[in-house]
Amino acid sequence: MSRLTKAIQSRVEAGETAFIPYIMAGDGGLDALKDQLLFLQESGATAVELGIPFSDPVADGPVIQAAGLRSLAHGTTLRDVLEAVKAVESDITLPLVVMTYFNPILQLGLDTFANLAKEARVAGVIVPDLPLEESEILSGVLEPAGIDLVQLVSLTSPRERVERIAKASQGFVYAVTVNGITGTRQSLPEETFKHLAALKSVSPVPVMAGFGVSIPEHVQQLSEVVDGVIVGSFVVDALHRGDRDAILPLLDAARSVRAEV
Ligand SMILES: O=P(O)(O)OC[C@@H](O)[C@@H](O)c1c[nH]c2ccccc12
C-alpha cells in the first residue's frame, strides 16, 4: 500500500479524520520550509500538500495566488523546492504531496522531475491542469519512482467519469467540493454531501475533500462522508499573518471522534 494511503487509513482506523494542509512552498522564503513542515507535523497533520508557485495558476483563488506571487518574488522554482525538501527530508516523517501545474514539470523535464522527487522522498504529485486522459505521460515516470499521481475529481462530473477517475487515482482521490476556484467559504452546498457519498461508495482509495474548508464545522460535516479534508487558503493565510495557531482548531476537529463512513 502507498505511504499516502497508509497515512490516511491509519487516521481513519483510529477514529479520526485525515487532515492535509496545503502550503505554498517559498512563501516566506524556502528557508522557512523546514519550520513550517515541522510545525504541521507536530500539530498532527496527516500529510502536507506542497504548492509550487506558477505564473498562470488557473484554479487558484486570491489567497493562493497572492502566496504564489510572494514565493515567485523570492525566485522559487520547482527544482529549488525539491532540493529544499531533500535537505529537510530526514526530519520530516509526514508524506509530502507536491501540487504543481504541468508547465513547471515540463520545463524541468519529466525524468529530472521524477528523479529529484524520488530523492526528496516525495510521496505523491497532484497536477490540476493534467486531465486523467493525458496523465500517462507523467505516471509513466512517477510509477517507477514509487510516487503516487493523485487525481482531482469535480463532483459535478458525470457519475461514470467520477468513478473512472477514482479508480485511476493513486494514494487518495482529491474531491473538489465546489466549482470554481480555491478559497475560504462560509458554508458548503447541501448537494456536495450527496456527491461525496456517491464518490466514497465507488472509490478504491481514500477520498479527501478540499476547496472552501475553513471552519471546524466543515471538518465535522465532511468527516461523516469522506476520509479527510484538505485545507489551503485558510492555512496559507494563517501562516502569512504569523498566526499559525489559528490552524489548531481545525486540526482538533479532525482528531475528535467521528462517525463511521
Ligand atoms: O484553498 P482551499 O479552498 O482550502 O482549497 C485547497 C486548495 O487551495 C489546494 O488544494 C490547491 C491549491 N491550488 C490548487 C489548484 C487546484 C486544486 C487545488 C488547489
CATH architecture: Alpha-Beta Barrel
| pLDDT < 50 runs, ≥5 residues | none
Whole-number mean pLDDT: 94
Number of structurally distinct domains: 1
Number of helices: 12
Distance between the termini: 20 Å
Distinct ligands: indole-3-glycerol phosphate
Strand order of the largest sheet: 1-2-3-4-5-6-7-8
Name of the CATH class: Alpha Beta
CATH-defined superfamily? Aldolase class I
Please report which band the strand proportion falls in: under 5%, 5-15%, 15-25%, 25-35%, 35-45% or over 45%.
Answer: 5-15%
Structural class: alpha/beta
Query: How helical, in percent, are the residues?
Result: 40-55%
SSE string, helices as H and strands as E: HEHEHHEHHEHEHEHEHEHH
Number of strands: 8
Report on the structure:
With 261 residues, this protein is an alpha/beta fold. It has helices at 3-13, 33-42, 62-73, 78-88, 102-108, 110-119, 136-142, 159-168, 190-202, 216-223, 233-241, 248-255, and strands at 18-24, 48-51, 96-99, 124-126, 148-154, 173-176, 207-210, 228-231. The chain has one domain (3-255): TIM Barrel, CATH 3.20.20. The protein has twelve helices and eight strands. The protein has an eight-stranded parallel β-barrel with strand order 1-2-3-4-5-6-7-8, surrounded by nine helices. It is globular and about 40 Å long. The two termini are 20 Å apart. The structure holds indole-3-glycerol phosphate (IGP).
